[in-house]
Write a structure and sequence with these properties.
Layout lengths: L5 E7 L3 H18 L2 E7 L6 H11 L3 E6 L5 H15 L2 E4 L8 H12 L4 E6 L6 H18 L7 E7 L1 H9 L7 H8 L4 E5 L14 H15 L2 H31 L6 H34 L6 E4 L9
Parallel strand pairs: 1-2, 1-4, 2-3, 5-7
Antiparallel strand pairs: 3-8, 4-6, 5-6
Helix pairs in contact: 1-2, 1-4, 3-6, 5-8, 9-10
The structure holds uridine-5'-diphosphate and magnesium ion.
């Protein structure tokens, strides 16, 4: 079997100071392995990432790039890469531009794929992160996996390699609310997991993932995967309905026995506020789904490309 062409897809947002170093570090591996190219995606960077891309393209013939019209987010950037590679029928390796994903590990992923694996994941340990963040990650992964009913593995992110057939499956998924971690899990268990330590020589840079961003990402994960929250509010509604019915019977019995007595202020206030908030939460959950239906129904493209490197065989110019 001829070696499958592999493409290393690297989404970049304001990575001008870092991307050059990564490409230079990838060079020896790419030249030794053969049949490997790099696709850089400029996700609307505010710095001169695009100029760096153009220079890299001049220097290395195996560097290709796409540049978006604005920042569409990492999911969109990865999708652009997957679409681009699917058109060419190659395998995809996704990695970050900021140096957190070591080139040596990328090489191991490619070698594992060439040895026959169709889905190989690089799993990092989280020893470099604060205890609070590690705990939070563990809880979030546990809860999400339970709700979504797909197995999300802590430490396994987008740094992975998929052979051409799986790339085609991902490219064919029409959804706009993309939650890649869930989509990978949907594909099935990886054939191989390669563990690595995150590099410790990186200048400290705050992750772009604030707690708020993580929270909304989790909601995306849940709502884009199944309708369990809807069932949950239905169950909550049924339970509170049943409880209030029982309570009504108690009140009726009391009224039967003692006649109507006026006190009941607390019960009334409690019932109004509790049920009121329950209804708002339920509406909110339904709203999350309606919002997603809206996004899917609009069917807008996930990204817009302003510029691409030219001269690749078969590439639309
Ligand atoms: N990224 C992107 N678009 C964005 C945000 C990030 O393409 O809107 C890229 C970024 O350049 C990097 C990768 O996604 O290559 C991971 O981003 P970051 O390092 O901020 O995330 P973390 O490592 O904290 O998961
Ligand atoms: Mg990073």
């Amino acid at each position: 079997m001829p070696t499958e062409q592999a493409f290393i897809v690297i989404p970049c947002f304001d990575e001008a100071p870092r991307i050059g170093r990564l490409v230079r570090e990838l060079q020896p591996h790419i030249e030794e392995l053969g049949d490997v190219e790099v696709l850089l995606i400029n996700d609307g960077s505010g710095d001169n990432t695009l100029e760096v891309f153009r220079e890299l393209r001049q220097t290395y013939s195996w560097v290709n790039y796409l540049s978006f019209t604005r920042n569409f987010g990492k999911e969109a950037a990865m999708l652009a890469g997957i679409d681009w590679v699917a058109e060419r029928g190659g395998a995809v390796l996704i990695m970050d531009a900021d140096g957190q994903h070591p080139p040596v590990v990328a090489r191991q992923l490619i070698e594992a794929t060439r040895a026959g694996a169709s889905h190989v994941v690089a799993e990092r340990n989280r020893l470099d992160e604060s205890l609070r963040r590690r705990l939070l990650a563990r809880v979030a992964y546990g809860v999400l996996s339970k709700i979504m009913q797909v197995s999300l593995m802590n430490g396994q992110g987008d740094f992975r390699m998929l052979e051409a057939e799986l790339v085609a499956v991902l490219a064919a998924m029409p959804e706009r609310n993309r939650f890649s971690k869930g989509l990978y899990a949907w594909l099935g268990d990886p054939d191989e997991v390669i563990t690595f330590d995150p590099p410790d020589d990186l200048p400290v840079r705050k992750s772009r993932w604030s707690l708020r961003a993580l929270f909304s990402y989790s909601i995306d994960g849940v709502t884009s995967f199944n309708d369990r929250p809807l069932r949950f509010i239905l169950l909550t509604g049924l339970t509170t309905g049943f409880l209030s019915f029982c309570y009504m019977l108690v009140l009726l019995a009391a009224a039967w026995r003692d006649g109507i007595t006026v006190p009941g202020y607390l019960t009334t206030v409690f019932a109004v506020t509790f049920l009121g908030s329950l209804q708002l939460v339920s509406l909110g959950v339904i709203g999350e789904y309606v919002g997603r239906i809206l996004v899917e129904a609009k069917d807008r493209p996930m990204y817009l490309i302003r510029e691409r490197s030219s001269g690749q065989p078969g590439s639309p110019q």
